[in-house]
Design goal:
It comes from Anabaena cylindrica FACHB-318. One of its GO terms (molecular function) is methyltransferase activity. With about 140 residues, this protein is α+β, with helices and mostly antiparallel strands. About 45% of the residues lie in helices and about 15% in strands.
Length: about 140
């Protein structure tokens, strides 16, 4: 593999802003523990509990890249303003909720809803991590 090809491969926001992701990708670092969940840190300085189940698309992306869906993440960050009330329907584990909550700040609030009882438990656990946010 030539140097130019390597540069183009790692010249992505998920690698530039979170260089540890490069090592995870190169060395295929995985959590081989028997835990069903692990803690991850999102770029906006927020912890999130994710599943180690490789079939879960959101958790797998967060584990591999440090974010889930760069375009959507960026759009939410740009479209949400401080002091707003934001709504997350089908909140899943709260990834998008955390983006909006960080952006609306203490003067805003985020209302989130997750109908699946098992996933709702994960969402609730994550909301407990985010004491400084109004959810």
């Amino acid at each position: 593999m030539n140097i130019q090809k390597i540069k183009s491969y790692i010249n992505r926001p998920e690698y530039i802003f979170r260089p540890v992701q490069i090592f995870k990708k190169i060395f295929n670092l995985q959590d081989n523990s028997n835990n069903l969940f692990k803690e991850a840190h999102l770029p906006w300085n927020v912890k999130i509990k994710i599943t180690t189940d490789t079939n879960d698309v959101v958790s797998k992306a967060i584990s591999k890249y440090g974010i889930y869906d760069l375009s959507l993440t960026e759009a939410l960050w740009r479209l949400t303003s401080p002091g707003e009330t934001a709504i997350d329907i089908g909140a899943n584990i709260g990834y998008m909720t955390s983006i909006m909550a960080m952006k609306v700040g203490q003067k805003g609030k985020v209302l989130c809803f997750e109908p699946n009882p098992e996933v709702y438990k994960e969402l609730s656990d994550n909301i407990e991590f985010w004491e400084q946010m109004t959810i």
